[in-house]
Design a protein that fits this description.
Blueprint lengths: L4 E5 L5 H12 L2 E4 H11 L2 H12 L5 H11 L8 E4 L5 H13 L6 E6 L2 H11 L6 H22 L7 E5 L4 H11 L7
Parallel strand pairs: 1-3, 1-4, 2-3, 4-5
The protein binds adenosine-5'-diphosphate.
């Protein structure tokens, strides 16, 4: 059975690109909290209403909102491997995810950290130009990422855990994919 995976990494590290490959070629189900939040805002849901002001400022949306949203998004089919993209970003989110997966008998995820120099990630973001990619917001999103990076990596990267892998995300997309597949013990698809 394929392995669930958490993607960690700065905005612009290329998590979305790799998630798309796992989805299209390996049957992964993607839970991207950023995408879910943007969808909620578009539909004008209560979650969207709470999230909007935080996202505009590049701040994290409160943990309870995020955790409830992810809980609702978990696929009923446990055989379907899941990518958690952009989640968890805080220790309470990580603890909630562990509890949720255990409770619903989903397997514990591998954790892949996409490492990239912030300057390079920032350049990629400016090229991409998503709606919430205004220069000021981007700057704050990087700061917030830096503020939380150590705590969240520390949660997963400890001697008792073999589930943490770092990948140099400044490499070409295919190279990153190859290393990601190896980390997930998947064979390359054509
Ligand atoms: P990026 O990683 O490029 O910043 P995302 O789409 O992952 O983009 O997130 C965009 C925004 O959505 C974040 O700045 C934050 O406000 C909110 N968000 C997404 N995921 C989370 C999360 N796990 N916890 C709190 N806020 C989140």
């Amino acid at each position: 059975m394929a392995t669930n995976v958490i993607f960690l990494g700065a905005p612009g590290a290329g998590k979305g690109t790799q998630a798309q490959i796992l989805r299209e070629k390996y049957g992964y189900y993607q839970i991207s909290t950023g995408d879910l939040l943007r969808e909620n805002i578009k539909r004008g849901t209560p979650t969207g209403k709470v999230a909007e002001s935080f996202m505009k400022r590049g701040e994290l949306v409160p943990d309870e909102v995020i955790v409830a949203m992810v809980r609702d998004a978990l696929p009923a089919d446990r055989a379907r491997p899941v990518i958690f993209d952009g989640f968890p970003r805080t220790i309470p989110q990580a603890q909630a995810l562990d509890a949720m997966l255990k409770e619903q008998k989903h397997s514990l995820p591998r954790v892949v950290s996409f490492c990239i120099a912030l300057r390079e990630a920032e350049e990629r973001m400016l090229v991409r130009g998503r709606e919430d990619d205004a220069a000021e917001t981007i700057k704050r999103r990087f700061e917030v990422f830096q503020e939380h990076k150590r705590e969240i990596e520390g949660y997963y990267d400890n001697p008792s855990s073999e589930r943490f892998v770092e990948i140099d995300a400044s490499q070409p997309v295919e190279v990153v994919t190859r290393q990601l597949l190896r980390a997930l013990e998947l064979r390359a698809a054509s």
